[in-house]
Every structure is written in structure tokens, then in C-alpha cells.
Model the fold of this input.
Amino acid sequence: MHPAFSVLVFTVMSGAGYGLTTLMVLGHLSGLSQLQDSTVLLSGGVLSFLLISVGLLSSTLHLANPKNAWRSFSRFKTSWLSREAVFAVLYYPFLLIYLAGIWMNGAEIGGVFLLAGIIAAVLAMVTLFCTSMIYASLKTIRQWNSSLTPVNYIALGLMSGSLLLATVQAVVSGDLSSALQQLALGLLVLGAVVKVIYLFWIGKPAGSTINTATGFTQASVRLLDQGHSSNGFLNNEFGYTVAANKLVRLRLLMLVMAFVVPFLLLLVSSSVLTVVAALLVVAGLLVERWLFFAEARHVVRLFHGDQTV
Amino acid sequence: MSNLKSNLTLLESNYLNVDQSAVSTRNDNSGLPVFEDRDKQETKYTTCYMCACRCGIKVTVEDNKVRFIQGNPNHPVNKGVLCAKGNSGIMKQYSPAKLSSPLLRKPGTERGASEFEEISWEQALDILEKRLAHIRATDPKQLAYFTGRDQMQAFTGMWASQFGTINWAAHGGFCSVNMAAGGLYTMGHAFWEFGDPDWENTKYFMMWGVAEDHASNPIKLGLKRLKERGAKFVAINPVRTGYQAIADEWVAIRPGTDGILALSMAHVLLKNQLIDDEFLIRYTNSAQLVVNTPGEMGDGLFYRGPEKDGKPGQPQVWDLVKETFVDANLPDITPALFGSALEGVDLRTPEGKPLRTAMDIMVEKYMDDQYSPEVAAKECGVAAEDIERLALEMAHVAFKESITIDVEWTDWAGRKQDKFIGRPVSMHAMRGISAHSNGFQTCRAIHLLQVLLGTVDCPGGHLAKPPFPKHIPPGIKPAKEMAPNTPLKSPPLGFPTCPEDLVIDAEGKPLRIDKAYSWDAPISCHGLMHMVISNAVKGDPYKIDTLMLFMANMAWNSSMNTAQTLEMLCSKEDDGEYKIPFIVCSDAFNSEMVAYSDLVLPDTTYLERYDTISMLDRPISEPHAACDSVRIPVIKPDRDVVSWQEVMVEMAGRLGFPAFTDEEGGRKYDDYKDFIINFEKEPGIGFLAGYRGKDGDKSLRGEPNPRQWEAYEENEGFFEFELGMNQRYMRHANRDYLELAKEAGWIGSTEQIVIELYSEKLQTFRLAGQGLYDGPMPTEEHHKERLVEYFDPLPIYYMPLEEQRIDREEYPYHAVNQRPMFMYHSWDSQNAWLRQIMSQNYLYMNRVAAERDGIEDMSWVWVESHNGKIRAQVKLMEGTNEQTVWTWNAIGKRAGAWGLSEDANEATDGFLMNHLISELLPQKGDKIDRVTNSDPITGQAAWYDLRVKITPAAPGETGSWPHFGPLKPQPNAKPSPDMLSYTSHKNVNLLRTLSDILTRGEK
Amino acid sequence: MKLGLVVDIDSCVGCHGCATACKQWNTSGTIGPLSDKDPYGRDPNGAWLNRIRTYEVDDSPNSKTVHMPMSCMHCEDAACVTVCPTGASYKRTEDGIVLVDQDKCMGCNLCSWACPYGARELDPQAGTMKKCTLCIDRIYDEKLPEAERQPACVLTCPTKSRTFGDFDDPNSEVSKLVRERAGKQLMPELGYNPVNTYLPPRNKPVVEMYQPTSLKDTVKGWVNKVIAR
Ligand SMILES: Nc1nc2c(c(=O)[nH]1)N[C@H]1C(S)=C(S)[C@@H](COP(=O)(O)OP(=O)(O)OC[C@H]3O[C@@H](n4cnc5c(=O)[nH]c(N)nc54)[C@H](O)[C@@H]3O)O[C@H]1N2
Ligand SMILES: Nc1nc2c(c(=O)[nH]1)N[C@H]1C(S)=C(S)[C@@H](COP(=O)(O)OP(=O)(O)OC[C@H]3O[C@@H](n4cnc5c(=O)[nH]c(N)nc54)[C@H](O)[C@@H]3O)O[C@H]1N2
Ligand code: SF4
Ligand code: SF4
Ligand code: SF4
Ligand code: SF4
Ligand code: SF4
Ligand SMILES: [Mo]
Done:
């Protein structure tokens, strides 16, 4: 699939934002000491707000006819994209109420504000899940059509969120909380494991072939002519191909940037390096997301001559 | 163009942004809006001209914009269907390449620089009139007038005769004269547009070398009928695409060898005595007696009886009952088919010259081992057992599955017959056969097969289309004499039957600029358009003053050797004058040829003009009906253009052609429509055969009808005259038909048309080559050799001429072209829709062969012939003969032409094979160096004789080669838009209701 | 009703007539205009609703060429519809035709991602999704002659390889063809239940050979039949 930059930014940014919200609220409620500081909470909240908003805005950039974007709320019944839109918007008021509470009463909030926080945390995860389901629900792309996709999105969302949370905490309070450090380290490991499993899983051939696509299952089938000599919409959208060797390099880069190096940097438990680690993770996840699209092979490619997807 | 503009402005508000209620819903209960305002629309009938198939179309127009072009269901040719081109007429109409005013090359600029100034039609016509009037008054042959893919050859030919120049021809010489001549010199009709397989009855169909052909839609409709009826379809073709893709059997022959394949099948039939004796005796000349005195005058000619009352002596046959010679063409005689099988009869003329029947000669010739499947297989690459099987399958269908149609008919001699016997084997063949220098004889070889099986114009066989069949050959002789200001005595083109008919001077030098009807190509019935520029520039046989081209892209895809042709068009004398001083072209688009013309006369599009597809020409007849048709404008031109038809009539008037002026010397016709209605070739016969007579109630013959155009308009643009059931078969010997044909002026007499398996006419030329003819004889050695070699009175196979003169090891591959079904030569690259299907062509190659040669898929290669080299991109495939490479014809374009951007794929990556093909035979330093690369008999351009070598291009060598500087758009050209959204009205969107959106679940 | 097309691969010669007929009808039809980017420039690329693909099956020399026209299959389980967030994409309950409401589409491409058959193309000018409408603006139009209330591609096909009809009606032409010619769905394993069905190449007709009789080697062996001319 053609990796549209706007979509990469959207999924990574909002993913991190939602992860951050969820972890922060949880930490706050579970009374984690370093998270009882209103500055930390407000900064964290604002950061998620910005990340998610930037993400959502950039997601509208890949619409060819944005003037109808508002209509995307209307098919909640069946469309994961519609659901994502709805939840994404629902999330905002709750986050804002939660933050307002902290703004007014400091870290010790209760009642409505607390409830709002919990709902925001839940909606964050729900939205992230909807996003992942947009891809996971497509039978046409076997690399996506799996429960591993939501697991990836949520794990990586939480992972990046945890690093951002650590960063905020470290920057505000000067030194990194070991709890948050452990959380981040743990999620980095989890994220890495999940990603590696995914990479192995998409590696094994399965699904439709040029034979099932054309209905000639007894013999080899080769494309002679796709019916148009220049690339069309389908080629541009689905024809995206990366050279195998380039793939390997990018995968390594991704693992190193998004997981290994941040992990090592975090071990040092220095505020500065935490910030660097967080930035690396975000950058690394952009590569991860790019690969998520670039490695996804739509079945239409079979009609354009690919033997398998 | 202004239409196009307005379409573009339409984009801003494409949809009616109103909800259902605002769009008047229809009174039906479909709940759908009214999608278009039918009251504003108008439907008109005319004839498609996106190609030469001439399908009937029904055009829906709204405010002078085309809404929809569809097939006319009532039309005899296409019965409602349309091809990809026909469906893209809108984009032809709105092409930015359309010429919009007459153009004159700017003084001081060079040909090819495409520097033009717009001039008025008055100026343009005056310039032309002055030039032509002078030529006509001094030396008429100084005008060479040649036409391409037009369909008005009867008119342009007549115009040329009236002008008085013999230097006229249409595109037939580089197209398919081999098929036309092969048929007309054998059966009286032909594959090429003059005949069709009997799709409704045939049980076995063999297609030789056809990718698309002129009968584009009829063939497709026909193939479906075969499938529906379970008939077998065999395709003989080195490439398997299109038609061949749906064939039941694909025979991947090596190009140029069909002759040996056909004759080998004949060998098999003869060995098994599987021939239709009755058909041969009744309808062919195979029982006629041939003088057998090798090395003597008269050898190989028919033994003729004495002259009777002025009539030349008739060929003789031996009557088995009367046991004596009798006139061959009498009814009720019992001719001996095999003279050599006669007991105790030694056939000799009274003078003692030994005689053989034509059949004796055939049997002897084709039973020879050189025609055995084993030998043939080595040459054509088709397995011996397949050759044998195919022949025996056809024999089975012809003789064991024959059909009868119980209709009473009268034969040529007036005898009632109670049925038609059908041998349901049919064939079709085209340029895979004709575009080779052995094509004429190969075509005859295929006809030989058909005749041996008795499948000519019988139910299930190969049917003639009126006005064919004609007597063999048609009785017109090519004109020779010319005189200032005098029309020719006969048309420029005709059908020679002996050396006396050649168009040569006393020394035997060619009289025509294209050397047609000279010893180079004696039976070149369609001229040699592909030689005109080359000959004129060399001044061989002489120089000309003006070259007038209509609808021919001779500066690109229609010339052999295009690169050099471009140089020739620009080559000058020492005094700086161009070697071809003045070039006039009529074109509708900014083609490559336009850039090389001095005066350009912009034509209308096919949707903008009156035109006739005439019975005097190549009408749209079907086997069972005589048909012709017209074009009627459906769109008002938005440019300063005039149809070539009008220009011709106007010039004829201005130059005072006798046929176009009345007694007082005034204009006889005010315009083209007037001319078409009132011109009579002979009393009652005009360009249009339908709705004649004062009241339009006469068909085929009748006095002019002043309302004839209206009548055609009222009848959906065509005229169909159904033949009676008794007139539909065996028309070469069917009096019911022959009398009608004579009345209609299609043939001169009602005598039987005797099929000429043995061609005495060819033999006269051969005798001339042997020095045994009392008449014109060649003086040059190579001419003698060619006549002896190739003018065999019976079909033969010989290796194509280019192959004979090159090193076959050095050039291991045959290179041929195919017509893409969705493009018509150069016409359609400007078509915004069609060029999306293909704007780059590849060099297709067999995968196995390529792997052997280390050629990779999609790699760039050099393709080299004896004449030059090109660079092209390779595409590997399975369905191609291993010794063959091929590409789609005429996709490559000159940068800047056709309203395309300079970096259009057609120019940067598309390529033309023409650069590799020489108009002359491979150079060896002998006399033959100057001989045309054509069939030695008919002068048919030998496009597909081409042999090439293929080598990988160096790394970094990508893109097609050669390139020539970009051409400029025509002055005043509207810029080609970079976004196109054609619509003829505001599109009415079908809205989904909000409630449905909100309430609907998964299903 | 379950409307759709049957395409006969056995007789399709890949002429592209149906593709341009479709383009022609629909550019001024309800889904139109169908825009073309760089129509006269490099890599021209427009929105089409019907494309012809050509394949070679098996290896040379016993391979076969097949042409596959492909347009919207009007699937019974059309994920292209369920994924659409705006509701622009929908499947009509009356006849199963899958349509895109041009006024509501936001051009997110998701439906084209959900379509296995490449039946949806984004309009480069309007930025909305275009697809086969089964010529809904023809088939119900009582202002057209009865015989012409057919999709443009069906009317134009020179080899009559396309048939339009109601797959719910067992006696319809399409249902008969599917039965008699063992019609196939493409990529059935994805479970979209495409309505359009393809008729596979038929078995070749077998023609007997004329049983060779007495082989003759020379002209001598022949006998003259007494046949009156
Ligand atoms: N769509 C479309 N239709 C056209 C035209 C067009 O440009 N486009 N052009 C029109 C014109 S002017 C003409 S003349 C006709 C020509 O119509 P066709 O006769 O179909 O001409 P080609 O396309 O040249 O097809 C030649 C076929 O013969 C095969 N072939 C080549 N060499 C040999 C050989 O030695 N033996 C055999 N058996 N086969 C061989 C080629 O592979 C190809 O399939 O088409 C007319 N119709
Ligand atoms: N390599 C190779 N070359 C070939 C062939 C091949 O098989 N291989 N085939 C040959 C054959 S068979 C033929 S018939 C020729 C065909 O070649 P041509 O007869 O030259 O046909 P085109 O090149 O298609 O069209 C000639 C010109 O007609 C113009 N034209 C189109 N419509 C109109 C109109 O309405 N009015 C006027 N006045 N002009 C119009 C076009 O713009 C174009 O410039 O090509 C030959 N060239
Ligand atoms: S075959 Fe196609 S282009 Fe040719 S006349 Fe018929 S519809 Fe027009
Ligand atoms: S029009 Fe008919 S023959 Fe031509 S491509 Fe379409 S389906 Fe095939
Ligand atoms: S073919 Fe594609 S667009 Fe058409 S209904 Fe099926 S999934 Fe949807
Ligand atoms: S592109 Fe349009 S029709 Fe397709 S899913 Fe998006 S909004 Fe729906
Ligand atoms: S049914 Fe109509 S819209 Fe669909 S492919 Fe055919 S012509 Fe195009
Ligand atoms: Mo031609």
C-alpha cells in the first residue's frame, strides 16, 4: 500500500497521544506519587491534546474531498473509520473536563472530574482500537487482516505514550521516576515482542494468488496487459513496492530506533536521554508505520500480475 | 475546442447539488430522478469513421455537443455493436489536434519546421487552382495525387482521370492489394472487403494472418456465432492475441511461409483424392486443355478453338462422351478432368502440340514431395501430422458434413437447380498473407484450397459481397496516354491481363511515378503509394511538380523507411528548390504529414460532413444484400474547415473538368451533395444506389432523385437491397444473380464467371520473361528472372524477397506488426480515452527465445535490420512464434504532433518499426537494388518480410530511438488541457437519503 | 432483484469496446464526469469503471491467452459499503446495485481498499470515488427503447460476451448461462459473493478426420468421373 505521510503522522501521533492519556490517568488514579503533581498532569494532558489534534488534522489532509469530512460521523453502524471519528471527538470534552478539574483543584480531584478522566482514558483506548480496526477489518490485505493489528496499535500506542509520560514527568520534576521508567522499559519490551511476532507472521505466504484471482487454478498465470499503459489510480494506491534489501534495512532501523536504543537510553535514567528516547520512539514508529503500509499487499495486485500477496 | 473549454468550465459545478425533491422525479415508480432532459436531445444517424469498417451509428446530441454514440441496431454491418474506437468518437471530435484553418508554410521556413501562417479558404483555393491549372494545361502527370485510408476512391479516382493524370492511387498498394488481386484474378471476389465467411452456416473456419481487419465488428459478431454454433475456429498466426486468443486451435506459423502450408494441405487432399470434382468441372477452368511445349511460344497457354463470328477462339476441353474437343464454356458437355487418365487418347492439338488439362498439371505439381507435410513442416514450423490432420478435418467437414439449402435457382445456362449444396468450410485471410512479397501467390494458394474443397460462394463457405463477384479480372485497363487539359480515356488503375496492358513506354520504362504496371510489378492494380516520394525525389522515372495527399500520413507511420523519407521530403536541388516542389495535404489533425506540407487544407471530422460509401467503390454490402451508406453532419464545425469532398467538387468546377461543366462551360454542380445526387456514371447509375428515381422508389438503377440525401437520412443513413434466396449463392454461375448484377451495373455481361485456378494471364507474363511472347518483353535480366520465377500460372511458394537477400543467421528474427483493436493507425493517439489504453508499445518476444538470447523482460534493446536500427522496450510473452518479434502498429509518434505534449509516452518510449523497413530490396550492388520491396507481381508493400537482430541496450540506454526534433502545434491551437472532464450536460447525481444512511445496518 | 453481469471469457477478444462505451456513457451519466489527468501529456490517467486485463495461462507452447473485463461485481457482501464512513457508498435494496453518492463522498479511498476487484477509482478532478453503476441511468429509463434498457457495455460488446440480468430469477438469461456454462466467481475465498460471474473457456469442438482411402502418388491413378458441366 502507498504510505501516505499524513496517515503515518496521524496514526503515530494520535496513538502516542491516546497512550499518554490512558497511562497518565491510570497512574494518577492509582496514586503513583510522581503523578500527583498538577503541572505534570496538565503538561501531559496538553501534550496528548496537541498530539491527537495534530494527528486528526493531518488525517484530513489525505481526503480528496475534505468538504465532506463532517459526514464521516454518519456511518457509525458499520464503519470503523466512522466510529473512530465519533470516539475521537467524544474523547475531547472528557479530557478537557478532567484537565479543567486538575487546573482548578490540583491533583486531588474527585467526582465528575475523576469520572471524566476515567472516561477519557477509556475513550482513548477505544479510539485507538477503532483506528486499528480500520485496517484489521480489510480482508483484501492479509498483512492487516488479523488481531495482531489492533494488538500492535494498542501496544505501540501505550509504549510511545509511556515514554512521553516519562519525558513529561522527568522534564517537569527534574529526575525520572523509576516507576515510570520501569513501565516504559516494560512496554518497550512488549512492543518489540508484538512487532517481531507481527513481522514473522506476515512473512509466511498465505491467502489469494493470481490463480484464485483469475479463476485459472490448474496452471501458471501471467499478466500480459493490464489494459492501460500508464499507471492508474489502482497502481498508485496499491502498486507500492519496496526492494527486499531496502526492506531488511528499514526493519532493522525501525527496531533499533523504536525499541533497542530507547531501551538502552532509558536504562541510564537521565531526563535528557529520556527526552531523546521519546523522540527516537516517535521517529522509529513513523518508520514502523511506513513499513506497516509499504509491506501490506492488496489483492488487486494479483490482477496486475503479482503471483501472490 | 470551445466546447472543450466550456466542458472544463463546467467542472466547478459538476453536480446538481439539490435533494431528490428538487430534481423532478419521473412518473414511473422507480423513485429515480430524471437523469437527462431528453427533450433537449436529438438523435441522428450517420456512419462511423473511427476506422474503415463503416458501422452505422446513432448519435445523441444536445446543444451541439455529443452525449452518446451508439451502434445502430438496424445497420447491416454492425447490428448495434461498436468497438472501442467507435465508442470514443467524442474524444476525436474534441481533440485539441484538430486543424482549424488552411495553412501555408511561412516563406523562408523549411519543411518540417511546422512554421505556418493561417490563410483564408479563398487564398488557399486560389493557390491550388493556379498551380493545378498550369500543370493540367502543360503536363498533367506532374500532379501526383495519392490517398490513404479514405473511402471515396471512386470519386478521387474519377477526379484524377478528369484532371488527366495517371499518377493517382489510393493506399491499396501498401495495404492489401495482394488479397484483392489474389481473389479477383482467381475467384472474382476476394478476402479483402469483397467477401465474408458464411458465419451462419460454416462449421469449420480457418483464419490466416488476421489481427483485426476492416470488418472489425462483423468478424467479432461472426466469431461469436461460430462459438454459439459449436463450429471449429482455427487461427494461423505467429502471434496469439485478440481473435487468436479465442481460437480452438492456434497454429503458430513462421511468418512468410503460409504458401507452403496451404499447398502442403492441397498435397494431402490430392493424395487422398479428396476434391470436389463436380465443382471443379462446372465452375473452374481446371478441365481446360493447356499446351505443353516448354521453351516454345504458346507454351502454357490454353488450346483454343477457331475464332467464331469475331469472337476469339474458346479454350477447349476433352468431352468424355462425344470423345472430342469442345468449347470449354458450353453447358451440358462432359469434360475430362484428368487428360492423362484417358484410356487410349493422346491429347494433342491438330498441329500435334501435346495437351494437358490444368488439373493434370496441378496434380503433378502438388503431389510432388516438395509439398509433402514432412518437407513443408521444416519450412513453416507446423508439425507434419498437424498439417495432415487439418487438411483431413476440412475434407471431413466439406464432404461428410455438407449441407443443402432447398431453394430453386437458375444456373448460368438457364437450367433450374433444386438446391444449393454447401461445403461448410470457410476461411478468411488478410495482411499476415498480403504484407509479404509472396503474398499474391500465397493468397492464390489459399483460394486453391477453397476451390478444391468446393467451398467458394456456397452455403457455409466463403461468400462474395455485391458488387462482387466480377468477371476475372474486372474489365478495366489502366490508362496510359495523357494529354493537356484532357481527361484520361480509362481510369488510372485497372487490371492487366497481358504484357500489352502494362503502363510502360516503347523502351519498357515506367510511365507512372510509382512505377505501377511496369516490369517491376506488372499487376500492381492498386498502384505503389509507398514508392511515390522515393521515386519522385530520385527523379526515377521522372520528377513531378505537385504531390497532393489526402488522408495519408506519409511523413510517419505510412511510409517505409520513415527516417530517410523525412530527409527526402526536405531534399533540395542545387538551385535550392525542393526536389518535390509543392506538397499539398488534406488532413483533419495536426499529423506529422502536416508539418512537411506546403499547403494544408483542414478537413472536417466524420461527424461534421456529408460523405458517401458508394456502390462504385468499396460499399458496405453484406453477402446477402447490396448496401451502401452515407455520412450526415451531426455537429456544426466550430472551425474554418471544409470537407475534402467539397474541395474536390469546387476544384473540379474551377478547373473546368468536362464531367463537372455543362454545355456553356458553367458549373454543373453547386456542391458535393448536388454532385452525388445528379452525377451518373451510366444512365441510372450514380454514387448512391438507394432511393433513386424521381420519387425515390427505384433501387440500384434509376434516374437521379432530388431528395436522395433526405431519403438516406430518413432511412438511418444506409440503403440495403436484400437478394432473393435464389440469388445468394453460387453467384459466379447463378443467372438469377448475374442478371441482377448486370442490371445494377456491377458486371458487364451475364456470362458465367469461371474460376481461374490456372491463370493463363500470369503465364503470358512468364512467357514474356522467357522471351517467348509476341508482345512487349522485358530487356533487363532481373525482370526476366522475376517473371519466370514468380509468374507461375499455378499458386507457388517462394521465400520472401528480403529473406533471399540478407544473411538469415545475422538477422534471425521475423518482425511483424499487429493492428491494435482500439487504435486506428495514427488517428487515435490524440484520443484522450484510447491513448490511455496504450500510449507506449513494446517489442513482444517469445519468453523461451528471449531467455535463450539473454533478453530480459521489460529491458531496452536495439532492433537492427539491413536498413537501420531502433531502440525499443521488450515485453516477453508465451503466445508468440519463437522466431518472431512483433509490436502494435503506429503507436509511436513524433514529439509535438497530434496535440500531445513533447514528453508524451508515444514520443519518448513508443516506437515505429517503419524505420527498419526499406522501400527498396536489400542492397547488393546489383540491378535489384533499385527494385521496390514489394510483391514482384502486385507491388504490394512487403512490410512483414522484415528480418531483424536483437541486442540488449547498454545500461542507461533507455527510451525509444531515433528521435526527431519536436513538431510545433498548429498556429492558433488551443492549448491541450491537463485535466479533462467531459460531460454534455450537468450530471444528475443519484442521492442517498439521510435516513437510509443513518438507519441501515450491515445489509 | 440481484442485478449483475455475466462475462464470457470464451469469446471475449479483449477489444476494449465495453471499456470505452462505459467511459462514454458514464462521463455524462449520473456518476460522471469521469475525469482524465494529463489527457494529452505524459502518463495519461483517468477514472474508468471497466478495465480489460489480459493473461496468459500455462507455459508456451501450450499456453492460452484470456481476456478479463472487470467492473464492479455488485457483491452481495460488499465491504466497500460497510467501511464507508460517510454513507456515500451503498447497496440498493431494490436491485443490489452498489453506488456512490457523489455529493457525500469525502474521497478517503477506504472503499477502494476494501474492494478486492479494483472496481473503484478516485476521480482526479472531483476527488470523489467512481464506480460502475450498472448503468442505472439506462436500465430503468422508460424513455429509452425497451431493447436499449441495458448497460452501455452490454449493448456495445461486438462478441456478445456480456449479458445483463437478474441473478435472483432462475429463468433469466444470466442464471441460465451460469448454470449451463458453469459460471465462476473471482476470488471466492474472500467471501464477498460477487454477483458478476465469468464463463470459463469451453471445451474445444472435436472434428473427425476424413479417413484416408487409397493413397495416390501420381496423376496416373486418377479416374475421370462423367460429370455434365
Ligand atoms: N483497430 C484497427 N482496425 C484496423 C486498422 C487499424 O489500424 N486499427 N487498420 C485497417 C487496415 S488499413 C488494414 S489493412 C486492416 C489490416 O487488418 P489485419 O489483416 O488484421 O492486419 P494486421 O493487424 O497487420 O494483422 C496481421 C496479422 O497477421 C499476423 N501475421 C504476420 N505475418 C504473418 C504470416 O506470415 N502468416 C500469418 N498467418 N500471419 C501473419 C500478425 O501477427 C497479425 O496478427 O485492418 C484495418 N482495420
Ligand atoms: N510498420 C507498418 N506500417 C504500416 C502498416 C503496417 O502494418 N506496419 N500498415 C500499412 C497500411 S495497411 C496502411 S492502410 C497504412 C495506413 O496509413 P494511412 O493511410 O496513412 O492512415 P493513417 O496514418 O491512419 O491516417 C493518415 C492521415 O489521415 C488523417 N485523417 C484522419 N481522419 C481524417 C479525415 O477525416 N480527413 C482527412 N482529410 N484526414 C484525416 C490522419 O490525421 C492521418 O494524418 O499504414 C501502413 N503502414
Ligand atoms: S469498427 Fe469501430 S471504428 Fe470501425 S467503423 Fe465500426 S465502430 Fe467505427
Ligand atoms: S467489448 Fe466484449 S469482447 Fe470487447 S473487451 Fe469487452 S467483453 Fe471483451
Ligand atoms: S466489486 Fe468492489 S466495489 Fe463492487 S461491490 Fe464488490 S467490493 Fe464493492
Ligand atoms: S471514498 Fe467516498 S465512498 Fe469511498 S469510503 Fe471514502 S467516503 Fe465512502
Ligand atoms: S454496467 Fe455500465 S457502468 Fe458498469 S461497466 Fe457496464 S457500462 Fe460501465
Ligand atoms: Mo491497410
About this structure: The pocket of MGD (ligand 1) is lined by residues B 51-52, 149, 175-176, 208-214, 216, 236-239, 253, 255-256, 258, 430-432, 436, 816-821, 823-825, 886, 889, 944 (CB under 6 Å).
